[in-house]
């Protein structure tokens, strides 16, 4: 009996050992993604440089920015500020949206607000009509003309990391839609009427652009380490984020401090930021908007030190 059990145990080990080796060999995932940390995304203005004499509703720049905010919230992948809340926070920090994209503005002031800034320029927003067919033979109409409509929307997009002012990704995002009909009279098409917005070929093309931007943000932020700010008060230490982005008790953070900025000697552009490790802290109490942390190792912590998920 003992020999039989022994053989079974060795057989099980022989089967499981290769599987364990494969699992151990798998690459580690991003720490922030692994524990469900949500990056904070700020949707900036979408400048409108497209020609659209056919459209007379609210500006597509604000309309597309609002659509993107809604889509990002629905994705459940990000922490996104509503426009009114963002304006209030910027006013408190004495900053503007343009400051967030400015490399000359102190990084710690910007990362108190968010991680990624989305900026776009609308370069195409319209449709064209094409007519095919139609012929006369002996005064009799043999074939009727058939119209088709092609909607196209294009946005030059930039994703900017607020901590480093680095442009993480820049490209043109396009969406197209073709149909035998417009789907909705153009004089009734408006960002203010979401019920009928998606019926129009331009509305459908716009929706494709918004969905593509969300997908690109998910892809880019999956490669990005989350960063926050360390704040001291009354002998306690806090982080400027909490349950709203997925932080949980027990999560450890590496605390770093900016040591030097390497700037281009002619343009003054920041080429690189060099940080030094200060220590490690652990989340002990998590609330919405703030996390209380305890020191695990290190000393000399200061207000404004950068925190990242410990690898």
Characterise this structure.
The chain has a six-stranded antiparallel β-barrel with strand order 8-9-12-11-10-13. A five-stranded mixed β-sheet has the order 2-1-3-6-7, with helices on one face. Strand 8 and strand 9 form a beta hairpin. It has eight helices and 13 strands. It has helices spanning 2-25, 31-34, 60-75, 83-92, 97-100, 107-111, 194-197, 201-221; strands at 39-48, 78-80, 116-132, 135-137, 140-143, 146-161, 167-179, 227-233, 236-239, 252-263, 270-287, 290-298, 306-309. It is elongated, with a radius of gyration of 27 Å.
What keywords describe this structure?
311 residues; alpha+beta; Rossmann fold; Thrombin, subunit H; 2 domains; six-stranded antiparallel barrel; five-stranded mixed sheet; 8 helices; 13 strands; 28% helix; 39% strand; elongated
Query: What's the helical proportion of residues?
Result: 25-40%
Instruction: Compute the average pLDDT.
Output: 79
CATH architecture label of the largest domain: 3-Layer(aba) Sandwich
| Elements, N to C (H/E) | HHEHEHHHEEEEEHHEEEEEE
Strand order of the largest sheet: 8-9-12-11-10-13
Number of domains: 2
Please write the CATH class name of the largest domain: Alpha Beta
CATH topology of the largest domain: Rossmann fold
Within CATH, the superfamily of the largest domain carries the name TolB, N-terminal domain
The Rg value, from CA coordinates, equals: 27 Å
């Amino acid at each position: 009996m003992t020999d039989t059990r022994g053989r079974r145990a060795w057989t099980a080990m022989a089967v499981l050992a290769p599987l364990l080796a494969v699992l151990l060999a798998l690459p580690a995932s991003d720490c922030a993604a692994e524990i469900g940390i949500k990056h904070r995304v700020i949707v900036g203005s979408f400048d409108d440089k497209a020609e659209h004499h056919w459209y007379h509703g609210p500006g597509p720049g604000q309309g597309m920015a609002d659509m993107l905010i809604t889509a990002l919230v629905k994705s459940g992948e990000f922490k996104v500020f509503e426009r009114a809340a963002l304006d209030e926070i910027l006013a408190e920090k004495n900053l503007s949206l343009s400051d967030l994209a400015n490399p000359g503005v102190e990084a710690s002031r910007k990362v108190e607000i968010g991680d990624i800034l989305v900026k776009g320029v609308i370069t195409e927003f319209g449709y064209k009509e094409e007519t095919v067919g139609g012929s006369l033979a002996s005064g009799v109409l043999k074939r009727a003309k058939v119209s088709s409509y092609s909607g196209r929307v294009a946005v030059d997009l930039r994703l900017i990391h607020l901590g480093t002012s680095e442009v993480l990704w820049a490209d043109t995002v396009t969406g197209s839609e073709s149909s035998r009909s417009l789907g909705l009279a153009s004089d009734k098409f408006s960002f203010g009427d979401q019920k009928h917005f998606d019926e129009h070929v331009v509305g459908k093309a716009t929706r494709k652009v918004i969905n593509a931007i969300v997908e690109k943000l998910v892809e880019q932020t999956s490669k990005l380490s989350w960063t926050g700010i360390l704040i001291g008060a009354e002998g306690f230490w806090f982080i400027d984020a909490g349950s709203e982005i997925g932080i949980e008790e027990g999560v450890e953070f590496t605390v770093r401090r900016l040591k030097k900025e390497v700037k281009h000697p002619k343009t003054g552009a920041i080429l690189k930021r060099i940080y030094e490790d200060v220590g490690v802290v652990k989340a002990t109490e998590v609330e919405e908007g703030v996390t209380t942390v305890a020191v695990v190792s290190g000393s000399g912590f200061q207000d404004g030190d950068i925190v990242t998920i410990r690898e």
